[in-house]
Write a structure and sequence with these properties.
The structure is a homodimer of 355-residue chains. Chain A is α/β, with parallel strands linked by helices. In chain A, 46% of the residues lie in helices and 18% in strands. Chain A folds into three domains: 161 residues, Rossmann fold (3-Layer(aba) Sandwich); 103 residues, 6-phosphogluconate dehydrogenase C-terminal fold (Orthogonal Bundle), CATH 1.10.3660.10; 71 residues, Alpha-Beta Plaits. In chain A, strands 3-2-1-4-5-6 form a six-stranded parallel β-sheet, sandwiched between helices. A four-stranded antiparallel β-sheet of chain A has the order 11-12-10-13, with helices on one face. In chain A, strands 7-8-9 form a three-stranded mixed β-sheet, with helices on one face. Chain A starts with a strand and ends with a strand. In chain A, 51% of the residues are buried. The interface between A and B is large, with 138 and 137 residues.
């Protein structure tokens, strides 16, 4: 059995992105949302047409975690789909709600795609949001194999990778890798609120990176955190204890205590997989000094093409008030010499080639 | 009086970058380092020639914080320069060392360029490392105006911006915006060390951002933190208290307590200035779907040039195992329509234009 048609309930960022991804694979999509504006915008983006009833192969509940059980109960009562899944970022709570409301556990496969953007709403949706990303599925003993097959196919159609994990383990995992880090970023950023302007003027890229996610919507995060309260609290308590111990070690001059945390940090950081879950690919970087004028990058890429070098990534660094910038061009390590030579031949200043 | 020649003591990342920046402006550079390999590499990179004695206009001490006082005392005894500065990331300690060792306070202007990279050593040096970055100077009542003028000229030649701040305020500021955030990132990363592989497989970009700086060298950071122990401990205690309070609020279901920290985090995050200290410029992003083949970007930039659109930034997102990627092209908001039209005309798929 394959997913010929699907109902997406909730046309926010995740729901609309699922709809767009499935549409690209030819699946007919029906949409539903209590917010008429969001629904209309998703329709205009080509995500599908409004649902007017009728049975589909698969229903995707892209609603806030605390509404999953309620919507699932209603849809199952309507007989809306052969299989159901949700995309909530916590799993134990929605499953408990569904059980409490008497939902059929056989046709419901709890899920959570690990993808997102800083912006929300259907306008931020993209068909490739899930490409190469992990998508957790939490089937239970009661789960029907046919339903699981349909939901696995959904994940595959979205270009994501299934990670099968029990709901409790899932919630502890996202507390560790997502929810507690968000609160820690908020606490670092909150400390800045009392800093003076001179102090803030000394901020660099490191601080911007550490605190970037702290800009997230407090209302949304309050719901996420409260839906996973105990696992998040456990991780926060460990982080708080490490920070308090390091503060105490600094005050008493116990430098081994400070080094211990720094070393454990290096170890923990090394365990994070690269982008898209794959090992980080090993590119070399060629730096090129650019003048800030139209066509400069076109000339650079033309020169790379003539040298038969494929450019894997580009980062531009602009300097305030200066008519120059530095392009960091990532290429295969074997190609660096040829590219640097070609660029220098065409008159660019290539200060540095590095691995 | 201008900086015609300078002595750079310490040919690591910062010292060699200062030397390269000054050389580009025509200043004659003498180098000194107890590490003969580092010195030779810096020479090979064109940073200058080994110092063999003789008086210069300015000596830049690019040595670890705990060695600044000692080296300053020796150089002043030799009469090596008209003015002296250092680049240590803490200021109260080196100044106290200098006073204790009987250094002349008039010719020494304590300094700290806020720039760095994850890599260290002369091979990572670049002449543009300081472009547009803040560079703290901490003159005292005893500081000679001529010495201050020479050091301000150094900052200007490196393309950086002077921020004048008393040493104690400087140390409190870097504790807030750099040192304590580093320890917090280490604590978040340290919590991962005990996580299982499935948990880590659910990690996303947010976690990578929060923990990126935790990969820094523990030996180097142990010295930085111990040189600024009390200010860092104060900030860490506030962050630890916020995290412990949030954990407690989560366990007791006090959601207002959770929201309070999230809100203060949004506020604090908004106070961080943009890259290079300037307000974040408001660009619009045009997404373009690219095939992964040589010349694709050249064709894209050619099309942009024909449309007379200046490209301000480009980010490439590659998808694992797929022969396509998405380029996010930043341009002035007024230019988005013309660019999207031009790209579509030339056959690209342009799924989204966003602010």
């Amino acid at each position: 059995m394959t997913v010929r048609n699907a109902l997406v309930v909730g046309t926010g960022l995740i729901g609309t992105s699922v709809a767009l991804a499935l549409r690209e694979k030819g699946t007919a999509i029906h949409l539903s949302d209590v917010d008429a504006d969001a629904l209309r915008l998703a329709e205009e983006l080509g995500a599908g047409r409004e649902w007017t009833g009728g049975k589909v192969d698969l229903a995707v509940l892209a609603v806030p975690p605390h509404l999953v059980g309620d919507r699932l109960a209603w849809l199952q009562k309507e007989g809306a789909a052969r299989a159901y899944t949700d995309v909530a970022s916590v799993k134990a709570g929605p499953i408990a709600d569904a059980d409490r409301l008497g939902c059929d556990p056989a046709s419901y496969v709890p899920g959570h795609p690990l993808a997102g953007r800083e912006r929300s709403g259907p306008a931020a949706a993209r068909a490739d949001l899930f490409l190469g990303r992990p998508w957790a599925l939490c089937p239970r003993a009661e789960t029907d194999a046919g339903a699981l097959g349909l939901v696995r196919e959904l994940v595959s159609l979205c270009g994501a990778e299934v990670v099968t994990v029990p709901a409790g383990d899932h919630d502890a995992a996202v507390a560790l890798v997502s929810h507690a880090p968000h609160v820690a970023a908020s606490a670092v950023a909150a400390a800045l609120a009392g800093g003076d302007d001179v102090a803030l003027s000394l901020a660099g890229q490191g601080l911007r990176d550490v605190t970037r996610i702290a800009a997230g919507d407090p209302g949304l995060w309050r719901r996420i955190l409260s839906g996973n309260a105990v696992p998040v609290a456990s991780v926060l308590e460990r982080i708080a204890a490490d920070l308090a111990a390091t503060a105490s070690a600094l005050r008493s001059g116990d430098l081994d205590g400070v080094t211990d945390l720094l070393r454990r940090g290096v170890e923990g950081h090394a365990r994070i997989p690269g982008k898209h879950g794959s090992p980080v690919r090993d590119f070399a970087v060629v730096q090129v000094v650019l003048r800030d004028r139209p066509g400069e990058l076109a000339r650079l890429f033309n020169a790379a093409e003539l040298a038969e070098v494929n450019i894997e990534d580009v980062r531009l660094e602009h300097s305030t008030g200066l008519p120059v910038g530095v392009a960091e061009v990532s290429v295969r390590p074997d190609d660096t010499g040829r590219l640097a030579e070609a660029l220098r031949f065409h008159g660019w200043h290539v200060p540095r080639v590095s691995r």
